[in-house]
Design brief:
- The chain is mainly alpha-helical.
- The protein contains one helix and no strands.
- About 95% of the residues lie in helices and about 0% in strands.
- It is rod-shaped, with a radius of gyration of 29 Å.
Length: about 70
């Protein structure tokens, strides 16, 4: 009976260690996802500014070509 109790406690320690590792991995993944979504939203902002500037430039070129 003592051997079974010892095996269970070591098994629980191994499981707890695995759960800790899984939690750490999930936390790292969440940080990476946050960083990625920040980069993507910054990229979208840059693209919208470039599109805006491009449309202003196209309007100016069209305006000067008409005159």
């Amino acid at each position: 009976a003592v051997g079974v109790g010892y095996r269970l406690s070591s098994h629980e320690k191994i499981c707890a260690e695995r759960m800790n590792n899984i939690l750490k991995s999930i936390e790292r993944l969440e940080k990476k996802v946050d960083t990625l979504s920040d980069s993507v939203s910054k990229g979208k902002g840059v693209i919208s500014v470039l599109v805006f500037l491009g449309s202003i430039a196209a309007a100016a070129i069209g305006y000067f070509n008409l005159k």
